[in-house]
Each structure stands twice: as structure tokens, then as C-alpha cells.
Amino acid sequence: MSTSSVLATISIVLVHGGFVDGSGWADVFRILKKDGFNVVVVQNPTLSLADDVAVTRRAVAAQGGPVLLVGHSYGGVVITEAGNDPKVAGLVYIAAFAPDQGESVSSLIQDPPPGAPVPPILPPQDGFLFLDRAKFHAAFAADLDAELAEFMASSQVPWGVAALTGTISAPAWKTRPSWYLVATEDRMIPPPAQHSMSKRAGSTVVESAGSHAVYVSQPKAVADLIAKAARAVAASR
Predict the structure, then answer these.
(1) Domain AB hydrolase-1, which positions (predicted)?
(2) Phi, psi of 38 (to 5 degrees)
(3) Backbone angle region of 73, left / alpha / beta, with phi > 0 → left and psi within -120 to 50 → alpha
(4) Residues contacting residue 20 through CB under 8 Å, at least 6 positions apart
């Protein structure tokens, strides 16, 4: 079977992070669909890691062939666990957490390096977290226009504390090829931390001058890396 034939059987499954939903992938989705890829967007409840992994695995199971899992931010934790599914052929991290066994978002952010920006996460309310709406634009989406950033800040999805504390049982990046886009202007996950996690995972790395919302602000750069990963997975099969 030719690479192009295999490529047609690969499904790209996009997994969003915390505080947002899957609609942020809209432009990435359009670009990949226009290029002929089968693309699915997961809508995780972000209540707990176990729930989000289960929802993502159902999306994987619904695909007819191999899957390329793509995660942004906390979505990287989800794909690191869900990526152990036999159908998953590769992982793409977009300014994302790529934890090792036993790690969680909580453990990865507990000791920020000196001088690193502090995400404006408000104290938990009934077990859920939100970002300070007044600081959302600067921290999460500095390269988006103010109107869109305000909408994102005002439509935040509650992020369950249980999602942050959920730990990885077996990181899929140890057995799957991975790619990583580092957002060099990220003020939520420091770029040095992104480089460290991607190096540990052995990922193929590219950089993009974007905020944490790079998947919204730089959809072409994000889609290009995903397409590159899909082609590499197809060629390997």
C-alpha cells in the first residue's frame, strides 16, 4: 500500500486543554480537512483525568484505522495516557504537558523556575478552577485580539481539580513517536519547560512565536506540524 493510501486511513483526533473546549480547534480543523485528512474533535468534560481519558479513548475507538492524537496544554496529559490504545500511532503536543509515569499537571507546575510567569489561576471554587478574567488575555492569549480573548475568558469551562491531580500510569510517548510545537511566547507553560518535556519524550520539535493559545492564533503552523506527523506515521506503516 502506498504512503498516500495509508495516509487516507489515518484519523487525526484533536484534544483541547483546560479552561476551553474543542471549538478553539476550528481553524486547525478546517486546514487539515482541506488537505484531505479525517479529523475528529474531542469534547472533554475536564472533570477528571480518568473521565477525559475515557472520552478520548471512545473517540479513538470510533475511528476505522490508525489514529494520530493531538493535545494542547492539559490535553497533552490526556493523550499521554489515552495514547496507549493500540490504534494510536503517534502523538502531537501543542504547547502541552507531556508528563512521565506518576506525574500530573499539579506535580509539573509545583516548582516554577525563578522569574517564570505565574498563571492567574483563581482559588478553587467547589473543586473547580478558573483563570482571572481580567488577566486572561495577557496570560493565555496575548496574540489574539481583545474581543476574541474576552470571549474566551468569559466562556471558560470549569477545570476540575481532579483533572490536575490525575497521574499518568504509563506515558505513551515511551512507545509512540511524538512531535512537539513549542510556543515561544507562552505565559502559561514556560517555553523552557516545554523544551524540557519534549526533549525527555524524544519528540521532533518545532517552535512558533505564539501565546499559549497558539492553536488559535497560529493555526497554519499547528496544522503543518500535525500534517507532517501524519505523513511520517503513514510512511512508517
Answers:
(1) 12-224
(2) -85, 120
(3) left
(4) 152, 156, 157
Q: Rounded CA gap, 66 and 87, in Å?
A: 5
Question: Could you give the 3-state DSSP secondary structure of residue 63?
Answer: coil
* Of 80, 86, 90, the residue nearest 168 (C-alpha): 80
Q: CA 160, CA 129: separation in Å to the nearest integer? A: 6
65 vs 199: CA distance, rounded Å = 29
Query: What are residue 40's phi and psi, to 5 degrees?
Result: -125, 140
Strand partners, 121: 131
Q: Which of 231, 220, 216, 215 is nearest to 70 (CA)?
A: 215
Rounded to whole angstroms, the Cα distance separating 193 from 54 reads 27
The Cα–Cα gap between 61 and 59 comes to 5
Cell of 36: 484531505
- What the chain holds in terms of domains, given with CATH numbers, is 3-116+158-236 (3.40.50.1820)
pLDDT tens-place string over residues 77-103:
999 999 999 999 999 999 999 999 999
Asked if 59 and 83 touch (Cβ cutoff 8 Å), the reply is no
Q: How far apart are the first and last CA of the chain?
A: 9
Other Cβ atoms closer than 10 A to 227 = 19
Q: pLDDT per residue over 159-182, tens digit each?
A: 999 999 999 999 999 999 999 999
Q: Taking 60 as the threshold, does the pLDDT of residue 35 lie above it?
A: yes
Per-residue b or e along 110-137, where b marks 16 or more CB atoms closer than 10 Å to that residue's CB: eeeeeeeeebbbeeeeeebbbbeeebbb
